Amino acid sequence: MTGFTLDDLARIVAQRADASTAEKSYTRSLVEAGPARCAKKLGEEGVEAALATASGTKVELVAEAADVLYHLLVALRVREVDLVEVMAELERRTVQSGHAEKASRER
Ligand SMILES: N=c1c2ncn([C@@H]3O[C@H](COP(=O)(O)OP(=O)(O)OP(=O)(O)O)[C@@H](O)[C@H]3O)c2ncn1[C@@H]1O[C@H](COP(=O)(O)O)[C@@H](O)[C@H]1O
Fold first, then answer.
1. Is Disulfide bond one of the keywords UniProt gives this record (predicted)?
2. Which of 21, 43, 72, 95 is the most exposed place for a label (fewest CB within 10 A)?
3. ipTM value
């Protein structure tokens, strides 16, 4: 079990998005290219993950899912949306459906 979390990756994305121009950073190049470029990458990776879900191997799906999560975090960053806002929305839905207490009891 890895201790690496989406929060960890979001922090790295935020740091790299602000990297100096002298540093080579793929994240920075995407953010500099703007929301449309980030959206295109996110869309492409989403389609690739969907294809891997339908007919790829588990190894391919793991790689495509990682690409989707990374590019989603870059998209959130370029539109200045914090991951915590997304998690709060997910938590709100969980509470609404009555699953929150059950999940915390099972933890
Ligand atoms: N998860 C990733 C990640 N996934 C893919 N890539 C880079 O994405 C680039 C393009 O890969 P693609 O397969 O999308 O190829 P492509 O479609 O031809 O590329 P495009 O020109 O269309 O973007 C490669 O250079 C990869 O290195 C990534 N680059 C960075 N990260 C994460 O971001 C962190 C910071 O990276 P830097 O910003 O480069 O410091 C890293 O530590 C990783 O955690």
1. no
2. 21
3. 0.88
Instruction: Supply the pTM of this predicted model.
Output: 0.90
Any atom of ligand 1 within 6 Å of the Cβ of 31: no
Residue 71, domain extent: 6-81
The alpha carbon of 7 and the centre of ligand 1 are apart by a number of angstroms equal to 18
The CATH number assigned to the domain holding 50 equals 1.10.287.1080
Separation of 36 CA from ligand 1 center, angstroms? 17
**CA-nearest residue, atom 20 of ligand 1:** 41
Q: 78 is written with which tokens? A: 């370029």
Domain count, the chain: 1
Residue 50, CA distances (Å) to 38, 56, 70, 82 in order:
18, 9, 16, 25
